[in-house]
């Protein structure tokens, strides 16, 4: 964990589809304590299992399925082998018939249904490969059969709230109502995690504007998406989702197979390096690793590689897509958005060293970051949950400072920027904040001061 954070990781993802609740709680504590020892803040994202169909456990946690062999998918509780594998979908035999295709492991393995025998589905392996335990399974046209929020999701959500997760990843989001239903289950006041809508279905693409409008952040989940739509469209859809989120001022994560070869190799392929760089050039706020760091042989090297590629891409001069006033997501507080925009313009005109955002909720720093300034942003708060949520935001460094207002608050903000090296004595700093007594998020002031 120390090596991962030192290499550049900002958020740790806990996949609730695997492992036990108490183990996830231990990992969250480990991540936060390790980050604190490094003088850092780390965000914790709990990914809900969702209704995602999966295969069951397999012998030695990994089997090879040979092309042209026969494989039976069963709802019975068995340890899978090359001939018979269990599935989490007890109704599979009713959902499929001869001639249907089933995709395993993000589409890497393709099965063709030959016949259905009671609760078993007998398939030919059309495209073989390595199948590990509890990998995703996709059945075309099965969306109408499943609920977006399950009992397993409810249990995982309770765990995430208990460990004060900063983010909740919502699987299988199809419509904005899927997000609002989960939000209604969150605590009413403090420790409200932000909801990340994973775009991984074709239906979600039809409702993208509404989903972006209600989600706190969005994830381009390219694995499942690449099964639901033709693979050739995924790069274009990625660009479309990122651009839409940039225009709406919402954080966006690009995920799945970004440096997959580094699961087993110490070096990435040239194509993977290009993939990571292009996601950054598209305007993504964050890049996510999964298998590479969960079970890979070179986790810290993979994070370091991704960080270095991202930094190189960020240095490339280009026009950035930034929020537009006509975008519905900006209408909640147009004054605050205008002040955030003005702070970025002033920072560029005056050559300030950093933009400092004392914030009660993190909203001020998020709005400033949406305009992609050329200087670093400091998000300053006394609230651990606010700091954790800022770890996802483009260009923001979360900093802890006392919760004071007025001139004392300004002095604390300047001191924090100097102490962490974002500014030096005599540098100009832009401070973006709300007037004393204002509600959280009501940004209305920009001040230019000397450090």
Mean pLDDT: 91
- What is the CATH C-level name of the largest domain? Alpha Beta
What is the gyration radius calculated from CA atoms? Answer: 23 Å
Q: Looking at this structure, what is the CATH superfamily of the largest domain?
A: Phosphoenolpyruvate-binding domains
DSSP strand tally: 21
Quote the distance from N terminus to C terminus: 34 Å
> Biggest sheet, in brief?
7 strands, parallel
CATH architecture name of the largest domain: Alpha-Beta Barrel
**CATH fold name of the largest domain, please?**
TIM Barrel
Oligomer: single chain
Strand content: 15-25%
**Helix/strand/pairing category:** alpha/beta
Give the strand line-up of the largest sheet: 1-2-12-13-14-15-16
Number of helices: 16
Provide the number of structural domains: 3
Topology:
Elements: H1 2-7, E1 11-15, H2 21-37, E2 43-47, E3 53-54, E4 62-65, E5 70-74, E6 84-86, H3 92-95, E7 101-104, E8 109-117, E9 120-127, E10 129-132, E11 136-138, H4 151-162, E12 167-170, H5 176-183, E13 194-199, H6 202-206, H7 208-214, E14 217-221, H8 222-228, H9 234-248, E15 252-255, H10 270-282, E16 286-288, H11 291-294, H12 299-314, H13 334-350, E17 354-358, H14 363-370, E18 377-381, H15 384-390, E19 396-400, H16 406-419, E20 428-433, E21 445-450
Parallel strand pairs: 1-2, 2-12, 5-6, 12-13, 13-14, 14-15, 15-16, 17-18, 17-20, 18-19
Antiparallel strand pairs: 3-11, 4-10, 5-9, 7-8, 7-11, 8-9, 20-21
